[in-house]
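Aim 2, interim progress. The first record below pairs a target sequence with its structure tokens.
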Amino acid sequence: MQHRARAVLAVVILLSAGLLTGCFLNIFQTARTVGQGNVALAIGTGVLNMAIGEDNNWMLTPQGRISIGLADNVDLGVRSGGMFSLTSGELGFLGAVGDIKVSLFQDPESFSLALGFGGGYNMGTFGWGLEGSIYLDSNLRFLPIYFVYHPLLPLAGDDGVTILHQLGGGLHLTLSETTRLLIEVDYWQGILSFGISLEILL
């Protein structure tokens, strides 16, 4: 019962953050799954420059994600976030995405590999769209890095099938048995985003 209450609280926090803001350019996810019956909450932010011509437009992108372990190697996740312009002070809600992640291989001493599939409404697909993910982690103690390839398929538009590409990677640093810090760089449609996220196993 206490586990369920924590999960409900995490969903409320995530949805509240999403309703106040919106947008998620960072992936903030690795190949690791949370384990059956476990719930993880990740809160982070990215920073990027969405320059218009020669005018800089620096943005903060606060983001949240909740992951629920359906099985030891399968997670159900929901993410949302926002974009806050440091130039104009504007913010806006841009959507939410759900996904399933399946771990193909997890070895805490070498590497982890996982695949993901999901969809929803978000800036990455300019509206409604589908997305996939390939996650690869190095679990070596001296090299705690991860890489993600994130193909995006917009469902709107008259130009036929267009697949967009997002690449991400960074460091996954274990702070305790229940907490990790992700430091990430993402590349999407010619835009670099730098971010940091704290993931807590509830």
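The second target in this work package is listed in the same format:
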Amino acid sequence: MKYKLSLAVLALAVFAYGQDAGGDVKKTAEDTGHATKKAAKKTAHASAEAADKTADATKDAADKTADATKDAAKDTGDATKTAAKKTGHATAKAADKTADATESAAKTTGHAVKKGAKKTAHGVKKGAEKTVDAVK
């Protein structure tokens, strides 16, 4: 009987210890759950802040890119306009020079033709006079 009593006391002690261990596990699990919930809230808050900052930075970068693109397009347009003006001016100058050169060439050609015609006429007149003198 002492043996049975010892077993009963031992079983009761194990049962009592088990009940206490279960309470400790439950408390530990609750504490862990609470800590996990707190950490998750902090992580979510930090993630939301990081997302806001990223969105702001992205918007700022997009605005700066748009401004730079607009400025580049304006500068390109101005450069094209200036080049077109310069090209037009150079074309007008070239046309004036071509006209002057053509006029000069026409005058020179006309003068040479006139001289050639006079010489030809003079030669024809001399030849005719010689022919008249020979016929006489």
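The mean pLDDT is 78. This observation will shape the mutagenesis plan for the next reporting period.
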